[in-house]
TrEMBL record:
Keywords: Isomerase
Gene3D superfamilies in the cross-refs: Glycosidases, Maltooligosyl trehalose synthase, domain 4
TM regions (residue ranges): none
Name the UniProt record assigns to this protein: Malto-oligosyltrehalose synthase
Species, as recorded: Streptomyces vulcanius
A GO MF term: (1,4)-alpha-D-glucan 1-alpha-D-glucosylmutase activity
Class of the enzyme per the UniProt entry, highest EC level: isomerase
InterPro entries: GH, GH13_cat_dom, Maltooligo_trehalose_synth_4, Trehalose_TreY
Length: 786
């Protein structure tokens, strides 16, 4: 493969566009002049390769060789690139190496595997355990057991049809009676519920509609990346965002191969880091997509003491109906056990089989004679104690699967000798054995751990532990939502030192609430008593109350979102209930419960009682505004490359997908103060890239005076100062800024948002924030671009 051209300068800022049939390349092109004027350097596009028809997101790729026709095809992408370059913008694109859509009629590679079986040249593309399926790939598309669905299965020439599903027939089997015909295929159509326990292909998390791809195979890598690499090499694209690298067999090797193939183009990875987990230093990437930054920025505007009070209130509010979700660590652990025994049961089964094979074939007698049930128990107990997503080849697995975790895991066994299975499993995880079964076990363990962490934390525990909805965000730490200024400054210093060109985000297509919704919710940590009073009023006023956990989440949802169409709230709360999986779920829906939830939401949060919540939000609007503007300015000026999600340059209130993937207007109708702050910061970054780039510096600035803790400030390269207000309600209650002052670096400093305003020396913070609760200062007399 021809190496790509040398890497360009990293972006100064990117702007994320959610492409879909309703918003194709042409629509993106029409927005380019406005987006260029906003001050970003690159457009960040959601996946552009051929996806399932009608897909609203594009992560269900069906053909890596073609640019998606519904978006305008390669011609449309090239036209977008051309108009972007005319306006000084580049393109960064999202790629999906981990999986493809399990949609045979659209996925030609999968179609041929289903038709020709393991002999197909495409069989190596997919992560299939043929032996486990008795030589057949299970396809979970039937609405019931096959015996009850035979009348709906029919042969039509060389294909098998089942309602909208179309499957290829193995050559020469067309004339067989239906039962024998099914047995003769390289696949077995089965009841969709069997995906939980019988599936024999790797999935994306527990989503059976997405089948795992083996990009660790060099030929598969070449085939699945050729089009994107060609577009990079031809200058149509400039950089990459890598979706879900944790699902891959070997992220280290994949990223090294990708780096070589792109010629070192700017690349960020969607890696979710635990609170103190470092990104592997050996990865040849610019950094993460930025969820680690989101957690720190949000934490700045959260009062830890108030968050603890909210937790106490939440426990009392929810306790009469459920005691679940009152402790974060316990909630995660319970969720993990449930996910392993249900959604990921088939992945656990496969891991047990590989572990059994590794033990049975080991030259070490100490590993032999281990019962599968004991290995399963050991695996369950170790997996649920993983506090990060997965170990890596370049890392120390023993530091992640710790001896402490092993000691706790042994407690699940009644007989000490059987507890030895824990040491066997841990030894396989942290060992360096090169036998095929040992290598496969380490890979499968890492992949299963990643899926488990995502499903149990992001998709379950975040919906069960809801004292503060703002904290239940990807990369977040709901058990410790607050971040002190000192912690924030230390984090920024590490980013500037280690990953200065990595991404930062506060809103994405995957955030469960947009940054502005979370900013509003964070204000509740400054007034938990007022929140308690409102809840007491609305609860007394509303007799039909859903379970306490969901009711609490519903009231917070309408507080954070503000005025909105009731159906948006209804949809989000229904998803909340199903994800929590306490009383209903996606696969075991309970209509009476869901109807009760809908009735409660309509009559309560979206009805008359909801007006009391709206009144509290209105009363706290100055504090919400301070958080919204502070979040935006910190995000846009801290170390790293900020990614601005579509529409968020103005105030943007959105809930979990699909609510946050709706097309937006360009330009926004009313950008307001947030629009002014965003544009000013982005244009400054574009005009002074050296101040914010890889060679820049980050210097904390500490205010002095009675309200010093409420001013968060820092300088970039001695040329730009950011200052924001934090915990503004507590500030007002304590008497305001009074004589608090912020020492500025030497020189005269001009307010970027109001150039007529200048400051020198120790600026009075009350003067600094006289117009807005944030300030962006640039050293006066600086020659632009110098």
């Amino acid at each position: 493969m021809t190496p790509a051209r040398p890497a360009p300068v990293p972006p100064t800022a990117t702007y994320r566009l959610q492409l879909q049939p309703e918003f194709p390349f042409a629509a993106a092109g029409a927005a380019v002049p406005y987006l260029a004027s906003l001050g970003v350097s690159h457009l960040h596009l959601s996946p552009v390769l051929e996806a399932v028809p009608g897909s609203p997101h594009g992560y269900d790729v069906v053909d890596h060789a073609r640019v998606r026709a519904e978006l305008g095809g390669e011609e449309g992408l090239r036209a977008l690139s051309a108009i972007a370059r005319e306006h000084g913008l580049g393109l960064v694109v999202d790629i999906v190496p981990n999986h493809m859509a399990m949609a045979p009629r659209h996925n030609r590679a999968l179609w041929e595997v289903l038709r020709d079986g393991p002999a197909s040249p495409y069989a190596r593309w997919f992560d299939i355990d043929w032996e486990a399926g008795g030589g057949q790939l299970l396809v979970p598309v039937l609405g019931g057991p096959v015996g009850t669905e035979l009348e709906h299965l029919r042969v039509d020439g060389d294909v098998l049809r089942y309602y909208d599903h179309v499957l290829p027939l193995r050559g020469g089997t067309e004339g067989l009676p239906l039962p024998k015909l099914l047995d003769a295929q390289w696949y077995r159509p089965v009841w969709w519920r069997l995906a939980r326990t019988e599936l024999n292909y790797r999935r994306f998390f527990s989503i059976s509609e997405l089948i795992g791809v083996r990009v660790e195979d060099p030929e598969v890598f070449e085939a699945t990346h050729a089009t994107v690499l060609r577009l990079l090499n031809e200058g149509v694209l400039d950089g990459l965002r890598v979706d879900h690298p944790d699902g891959l067999a070997d992220p280290d090797a994949y990223l090294a191969r990708l780096h070589g193939a792109t010629g070192g183009r700017w690349t960020v990875v969607e890696k979710i880091l635990a609170d103190e987990e470092p990104l592997p230093a050996s990865w040849p990437v610019a950094g993460t997509t930025g969820y680690d930054a989101l957690r720190r920025v949000d934490g700045l505007f959260t009062d830890p003491a108030g968050a603890r009070e909210l937790l106490d209130l939440y426990r009392r509010f929810a306790a009469p109906q459920t005691d679940r979700g009152g402790d974060w660590a316990a909630t995660v652990r319970r969720a993990a056990y449930g996910v392993l025994s249900h959604e990921l049961a088939t992945e656990l089964d496969r891991l047990v089989r590989v572990a059994s094979r590794a033990c049975a074939t080991s030259p070490d007698p100490a590993l032999r004679d281990r019962a599968p049930w004991a290995l399963r128990t050991a695996l369950e107990e170790l997996l649920v104690r993983m506090e990060v997503y997965r170990p890596y080849v370049s890392g120390d697995a023993a530091a992640l699967v710790t001896e402490r975790a092993a000691e706790e895991a042994r407690g699940a066994f009644a007989v000490a000798e059987e507890a030895g299975a824990v040491d066997v499993v841990r030894g396989l995880v942290v060992g360096e054995g090169e036998r095929a079964a040992e290598v496969e076990f380490r890979v499968r363990f890492a992949q299963t751990a990643s899926a488990l962490r995502a499903k149990s934390v992001e998709d379950t525990a975040f919906y069960r532990y809801v004292p503060l909805l703002a904290a239940t965000e990807v990369g977040g730490e709901p058990g410790r939502p607050g971040v002190s200024p000192q912690e924030f400054h230390a984090y920024c210093a590490r980013v500037q030192r280690d990953w200065p060109a990595g991404g930062t985000v506060v809103t994405t297509h995957d955030t469960k609430r947009s940054a502005d919704v979370r900013a509003a919710l964070a204000v509740l940590t400054e007034c938990p008593d007022r929140w308690a009073d409102v809840l007491e009023q609305v609860t007394c006023a509303e007799e039909e109350v859903a379970d306490g956990q969901l009711a609490w989440a519903a009231w917070q949802t309408v507080f954070g979102l503000g005025p909105a169409a009731p159906e948006r709230v209804q949809e989000a709360l229904l998803k909340h209930a199903r994800e929590a999986s306490l009383y209903t779920s996606w696969t075991e829906q309970e209509p009476p419960y869901e109807e009760a939830v809908a009735a409660f939401v309509a009559a309560g949060p979206c009805g008359g009682p909801g007006e009391r919540v709206a009144a509290l939000r209105e009363a706290l609007q100055p504090q919400v505004r301070a958080n919204v503007l502070g979040t935006a300015l910190v995000h846009l000026t801290m170390p790293g490359v900020p990614d601005v999600y579509q529409g968020t340059e103005a105030e943007y209130r959105a809930l979990v997908d699909p609510d946050n993937r709706r097309p937006v207007r360009f330009p926004p109708d009313d950008p307001g103060d947030k629009g002014a702050v965003t544009a000013a910061a982005l244009r400054l970054r574009g005009r002074r890239p050296e101040v914010f780039g890889t060679a820049a510096t980050y210097e904390p600035l500490t205010a002095a005076g009675p309200a010093a803790g409420h001013c968060l400030a820092f300088a970039r390269s001695g040329e730009v100062v950011t200052a924001v207000t934090r915990l503004s309600l507590r500030l007002a209650e304590a008497g305001g800024w009074r004589d608090t002052r912020l020492p500025l670096p030497p020189g005269t400093w001009r307010d970027v948002l109001a150039p007529e305003r200048e400051f020198t020396g120790h600026a009075r913070v009350a003067d600094l924030f006289a117009r807005l609760p944030v300030a962006l200062l640039e050293r006066a007399g600086t020659v632009p671009g110098a």
